[in-house]
UniProtKB/TrEMBL annotation:
GO terms for biological process: xylan catabolic process. It comes from the Bacteria. Belongs to the glycosyl hydrolase 43 family. One of its GO terms (molecular function) is hydrolase activity, hydrolyzing O-glycosyl compounds. CDD domains: GH43_CoXyl43_like. The record marks D151 as: Important for catalytic activity, responsible for pKa modulation of the active site Glu and correct orientation of both the proton donor and substrate. Keywords: Carbohydrate metabolism, Glycosidase, Hydrolase, Polysaccharide degradation, Xylan degradation. PANTHER family: ENDO-1,4-BETA-XYLANASE, PUTATIVE (AFU_ORTHOLOGUE AFUA_2G04480)-RELATED. This is Alpha-N-arabinofuranosidase.
Length: 345
């Protein structure tokens, strides 16, 4: 349910039809990356605020400054806000726009991975560490070398390797990196530098992390998303092509790469036998929510799988004031996921 239609929404009626309610309502939270560490649920969201920035298609109104970690003892228990975990003022290289983060754990240290705009106006991805899953986190002095764009998601494979998946179109600047270096020429428009509709869509990236999880161990590689015939999805196929919000999880030995289609507002996914892909498009996990953006994570908790996602129902449709929610997802026998409708009739 994209932003353009919100003036017609009866939010009281909609909230009654919603399949779940915000996990916290004292602050706005979005882009939830959920993990199950040591028998407890930790959610690493964006912390939405209204900073008074004008709306534009580059997402300048998403002017977030810090992160809070949300924790839950179990899926049915109250969600706790553990306070500020990292502020942009404590990240030497970052100027603004603390967008969708993720976290992971290795040998008792917790790593917060986050995108932010550096002082030159280019999005980079940084790392901050803490001995606690809830922070506070201490940022590395520089962004990850060779990082660019937004929405990092760090997946730990069964062999102990960690991979970062990332990228995002329009305000996320992925289209400006088509030639391998940042295209700084004007115009700073969300659609400049995009492929034509009949060309292959821009692809997200993956890079294996170094053992200390602070740098890329390799040059990032593109991740192919293909149709059932093995053909790359096209840029004009905007109900299926990648836009932002990468996530990787494993189910029954298969790799599931899920993402948002951005301007068509779906959470979709593809399946592969390899963490580098190619991923064969399989369908939608979540239909459009109230608000322009859709962003999610999939987390297995005590044998059940959950989709953490957000919508703008609490703010009555303000697209940059979102709330994190959770709903169980179901797999069919062939490994496909039953599409969730966020508001039931
Ligand atoms: O929260 C800011 C941006 O909005 C995220 O980085 C995108 O995924 C979208 O949710």
């Amino acid at each position: 349910m994209p932003e353009e239609s919100i003036e017609h929404i009866d939010f009281d009626a909609l909230n009654k039809k919603a399949i779940s309610q915000p996990l916290v309502s004292h602050i706005y939270t979005a882009d939830p990356s959920a993990h199950y560490f040591n028998g407890k649920i930790y959610i690493y969201p964006s912390h939405d605020v209204d900073a008074g920035e004008a709306f534009d298609d580059l997402g300048s109104h998403f002017a977030m400054e810090d992160y809070h970690v949300i924790s839950m003892d179990s899926i049915d228990s109250k969600a706790i806000d553990n306070g500020m975990a990292l502020h942009v003022n404590d990240v030497p290289w970052a100027e603004k726009q603390m967008w969708a983060p993720d976290a992971n754990e290795k040998d008792g240290t917790y790593y917060l991975f986050f995108p932010a705009k550096a002082y030159d106006g280019i999005f980079r991805i940084g790392v901050a560490t803490s001995p606690s899953p809830t922070g506070p986190f201490t940022a590395q002095p520089e962004a990850i070398k060779g990082s660019f764009s937004i929405d990092p998601a760090v997946f730990k494979d069964d062999d102990g390797s960690y991979y970062m998946y990332f990228g995002g179109l329009w305000g996320g600047q992925l289209q400006r990196w088509r030639t391998g270096t940042f295209n700084a020429s004007e115009p700073d428009s969300p659609t400049a530098f995009l492929p034509d509709d009949n060309e292959p869509a821009l692809l997200p990236y993956v890079a294996k992390m170094t053992d200390d999880l602070l740098e890329f161990a390799e040059k990032p590689k593109t991740i192919e998303i293909v149709d059932e015939k093995g053909a790359l999805l096209l840029a004009g196929d905007n109900e299926r092509r990648f836009f932002e919000a990468a996530w990787l999880h494993k189910h029954n030995g298969k790799y599931y790469f899920s993402y948002s289609t951005g301007d068509t507002h779906f959470i979709c996914y593809g399946i592969s036998d390899n963490p580098y892909g190619p991923f064969t498009y399989k369908g939608r996990i979540l239909n459009p929510v109230v608000g322009w953006t859709s962003h999610h994570s999939v987390c297995e908790i005590e044998g059940k799988s959950y989709l953490f996602y957000h919508d703008s129902s609490l703010s009555k449709g303000v697209t940059h004031l979102r709330s994190v929610k959770v709903a169980e997802i179901t797999y069919l026998e062939d490994g496909t996921i039953v599409t969730l409708d966020p508001y039931k009739d």
